[in-house]
Amino acid sequence: MDDKKHILLLSTSTVFGSGYLAYAEREITDFLGSSRRVLFVPFALHDRDGYAARVRRRFAECGYEIDSLHDATDARAAVANADAIFVGGGNTFRLLKTLYDLQLLEVVRENVVRGMRYIGSSAGSNIAGRTIQTTNDMPIVQPPSFNALGLVAFQINPHFVDADPGSKDMGETREERIAQFHEESETPVIGLREGAMVRVEAGVATLVGSAGARLFRKDRSAVELRAGSVLEGFVNSERI
Amino acid sequence: MDDKKHILLLSTSTVFGSGYLAYAEREITDFLGSSRRVLFVPFALHDRDGYAARVRRRFAECGYEIDSLHDATDARAAVANADAIFVGGGNTFRLLKTLYDLQLLEVVRENVVRGMRYIGSSAGSNIAGRTIQTTNDMPIVQPPSFNALGLVAFQINPHFVDADPGSKDMGETREERIAQFHEESETPVIGLREGAMVRVEAGVATLVGSAGARLFRKDRSAVELRAGSVLEGFVNSERI
Predict the structure, then answer these.
(1) Is A194 in contact with B170 (Cβ distance < 8 A)?
(2) ipTM of the complex in this document
(3) pTM, full prediction
(4) Which of A26, B48, B88, B202 has its Cα between 20 and 30 A from that of B32?
(5) Contact A184 B15 (CB under 8 A)
């Protein structure tokens, strides 16, 4: 059943020096295939109308029509009937809380299992994992649970940055923060650099894009992943 | 009653290029006055024994004895009987969850109101505010609530960094994250740069230390604060 999952997880919507979604356009169009309508989820940002308008313009350039979930009279039906969904970035806590408030998590999960194509960017990638416990975002609102969609058996850390040896900042590096997560959990974490994506097709997760990623696991050394790296066993493992 | 509050909130335990708590030593010894025993709260880090040992050595250099709360047979009694408490940095979610699990928030709050001196660093400063909603930390565990001690009427953002105009990172700047918080809340936020501290005495909060801070309020321009700046009305305002 899981073989029907089609998932594309972006670290960021935009890489430095290029336009919105420009770096990912070819991957997105290849991923969407014949789907021409995409349901957009704008809940991670405060200005939903503005966000939906920006995404609608951008997808129109590539020949796609956007329906925004915040405009739907029946949000659950809109998700249930969608062929493809794009969950945009912003604040992960706000996004997840809104999905809980509208009771949408289960219908998204069910429809992805049935074959709805799922594109997430940043916060939208975070919520595809088991929990949002490796987000970089501020906890500006409190969702009832940190448990998320669990479409894949790992966590995403988007906008992953390697430690800067010249930094004078004494806060934890990203890698130290992920190590703190692994003091509490065994779920693998993929630190996705900006420009990297994870694509799941036919039960296999593959790293795509240009920037590479780091795979972090509890009590093991981090592993560098490059475009084409296959993440064995990370799609259909049992939920912990 | 609030006039008895003595609170010292550090952005960080360590500034670049100096030893643990070195930059803050003079402020801490002045703040502690005649108190010679300090109750240490190590819950923000996983290795409580190691953390307590490090803090014990450091405070011994200045003539203070440390009792670590994780060694206490009755944690609530230990807090209730303390003259001074130091809540160390680490992960804010872990710290707050542990305080909830051990039912310690109320006894800490009550004893600060009665005059127990409270020193917080980083995560320990976050939890002195109304909520932990402006922490930079990863949500590696889930506390039952984001509401914190509310010893002061503002939020701390520790390790505050100004936006780097040369950055190629496309994640939100710290200021943008705090603006997202203000889309959801009206509580003022003090972005404390590493090296800056807030000291509360006799109902007045004053910025001390070398690095300065930024005051962020909903729908208002940010204000730069320097050592000696008084934060009017930010101690005893009603909790929202």
Answers:
(1) yes
(2) 0.91
(3) 0.93
(4) B48
(5) no
